[in-house]
Design a protein that fits this description.
single chain; 120 residues; alpha/beta; Spore Coat Polysaccharide Biosynthesis Protein SpsA, Chain A; 4-stranded parallel β-sheet; 4 helices
């Protein structure tokens, strides 16, 4: 399989029990919501890791040490370039990532950005 000249960027948040999606947590509780978020993130990382692309980047926020399945997420991230998210709030962090990827440097490859959201 040939490698596509593309960078895949995943924008993600560590699945911490105190910080999962509030609508999901309201239904199933913080711990289960964080476990579902961890499963969604791990599935996303597996799909991106399997893609035949030039580079894989994760823009990450949150504390993996406090996250559900944090050790497993950390292991999966070993094959990615991990960068911190910048900005206050999700919208600001997403804008920062977009600005950082809008104008590729000479010799760089196009970037496809993906976020992930666990079910509600």
């Amino acid at each position: 399989m040939s490698v596509l000249p593309v960078t895949l960027l995943v924008v993600a948040k560590a699945p911490e029990p105190a910080a999962p999606k509030t609508r999901l947590a309201a239904t199933v509780g913080d711990t289960v919501a964080a476990e579902i978020a961890a499963a969604a993130l791990l599935d996303t990382l597996d799909a991106v890791a399997a893609a035949p692309v030039a580079a894989r980047v994760v823009a990450l926020t949150g504390d993996l040490d406090a996250a559900a399945c944090g050790a497993e997420v950390r292991r999966r991230l070993e094959s990615f370039t991990v960068i911190p998210q910048r900005g206050d709030g999700f919208a600001a962090r997403l804008r920062q990532r977009a600005r950082g990827r809008r104008a590729p440097r000479p010799g760089s490859v196009p970037c496809c950005r993906s976020g992930w959201t666990p079910p509600r």
